[in-house]
Amino acid sequence: MLLAKIYVTFKEGVPDPQGETMGQSLLAMGYQGVLSVRTGKYLEIKLATADKDAASREVEEMCRRLLANSVIEQYRYTLEECC
Amino acid sequence: MKFGVIVFPGSNGEQDVYHALDEVLRQPVDYLWHGDTDVSGYDCLVLPGGFSYGNYLRAGAIARFAPIMSAVIDFARAGGLVLGICNGFQILLEAGLLPGAMLRNDCLQFRCQWTHLRVENTATPFSNRFRQGQVIRVPIAHGEGNYYVDAATLAELEANRQVVFRYCDPSGKVTTAANPNGSVANIAGIINREGNILGMMPRPERCVEELLGGSDGREMLASVVDWWQRGNSNGA
After folding, report:
1. Cα separation, B73 vs B57, whole angstroms
2. How far is B111 from chain A (nearest CA, A)?
3. So what CATH class is B3-229?
């Protein structure tokens, strides 16, 4: 089995109202060094296959078709042996 | 003219749309379940507001893969009239039938309020009963209606007059203060280039009788019927 660890984040330049609000909150809490906060999603998918190439092709497709919206988001992932 | 209102698990605007079409406009209308795969016999499909599939992942992202959506996409690509309201608009964006994507409202609040909209293009099946530049009053109810599109696509939308409704103040001025959610260029509703698919965040079905506080939504929906009756069913 393989474990895909997927990170979906906003593309540069796309507004992230939640991230901006967290950034303002951190500044208000006294963390003056905070320059920006960007939010994203972290997903873990367990895959039955042990074939990394096949898994990679499948994860790419899942990201492209469902997990990330290419208008506003980008994705990256890692594959590791698991369980 | 026969309407089909598509019901996803988590839709909540379908009964209001049904009421508007049936009781107010006196048009034949059916509910279509998300698991259906056939939309033949319908002249206009309406994707109503709500929280389809809990809006998990992104609003509309899961609904876009509902069994009925293949038929909706075929219907739309063949020139059929499709109206996406609120969550329905989000689903049309996720399905790629309209350009752009939705972000959280810039204020981070769920906004449930009346808005003023300036009608920017009256040469569409969905807006032909209005005057160019007319200001109409339609309520919104959403937390993710912050329409985003990149600068190049926005320029295309503007050049092709695909922006149909824009948030404005009561006098028709398009201002930042009148923008309830941060949408680029105050966009409240857009149409595809071919002119048969419209998506809008405001809820026309919630203002179809004076009892509801306004009836501009009735005029909008009646535009579709007029358009159909004039035989212009294949778009602008």
Report:
1. 21
2. 15
3. alpha beta
